[in-house]
Amino acid sequence: DGGGAGGEQEQLEFTPDTVLEQLQVVFTTRSNEARRRAHVFLKHFVHSEDAWTVADQMLRGANDVAGGDAMLRERVAHFGATALTTKLAHAFHELPADAHDDLRQSLFEHVHTYAGGPRTVRNQLSLGVAMLAVQMPTWTDTIVNDIVSLLPSTDGPGMLASQLGALGELPHVLGGHRVDIAPERRHALWQVIGAAAVDVVRHLATCLEACGDDADVQRLVLVCFHNWLRYARLPTDTDALLDNPLVSACFQALASDTLFEPAVECCVELIGRARVDQSHGAALANEVVPLALALKPTDEPLCPDDEKEAVGHAQIFTALGRRFMGTILDCGDEAMIIVGALLDLARHESVNVLVASTSFWARLADRLRVEKMEIPVIVDPAADDDAAAAGGAAGG
Q1: pTM score
Q2: Which residues neighbour 130 within 8 Å (Cβ) at sequence distance 6 or greater?
């Protein structure tokens, strides 16, 4: 009954204490009915205008209410941070304009407080910074510089992680649909992002060099790099990409289980920006293509046992095949490496590997039909050996 729910909501009191009480019910009570009522309460809380103030208070007071209980502190802080980002995503219009500066200051204070963790809270707050940045009318031209200067990497790995998280989320939020942004505001922000892209990529290369073997920071660098490549329209002929250690680092990171997935995304994006037939992408292609082709062993098939690894390699070689379809139709040496790698991967027992390369085979078939070409015969040495063995057995 919608009316009943509305009447119940009007009687609810939202304070840090009442919200904490219901959180404790959710995490500690076995009664399904009690948990259901607590979830309803918390849902109403997040949709209320009181959530702006109470979420801020919960983030400030998480240590006090939790005492020495680290798990309770994380739960309180994470709920407060999540409530804040939810409000930023869906209810920014509730705030009067004269509250925007205070919210920004408060948000940066929270980022500093939780830079050392928990990671879940830090990630939510970094997302919150990006969500506020794309919506706050008086914060436009200095967004990128402010994130870098107000969250200085010199304050330690946690602050660097917060900075990279906010920088990475900025083009992601702007390029997605999580926040409703007016077209003119979105256009103005893309201008700012585009102007800052070269400096950001250079900054990421510096961060990568400075972080050493810190896999958490390396992963954030790769995620941030991918988002700026994908959404920020970074020019492919810029010196920020050419001879940038980030490019080779993406391919090297494929050897790391922790970094594999963001590395694949970066590699696919770099390949998509390389062009063999256009001057502005040729230099990048000369750097990226050899790194990608080197993933295919010279004298043995490319057949990783791990499904995630096989899917990732299929995505990379599919991107290569789609980008250099003309070369493949000419049956050049590079084409044979690309097609051979995809044929190797097609033998994997997981159907997800084959699905990852479907777009390449579909485009190849379309091009062959359009150009009325005969389908080239590609000799698969392994299949040839199998056939010979079968023939010998039949003859015997």
Answers
A1: 0.85
A2: 166, 169, 170, 172, 173
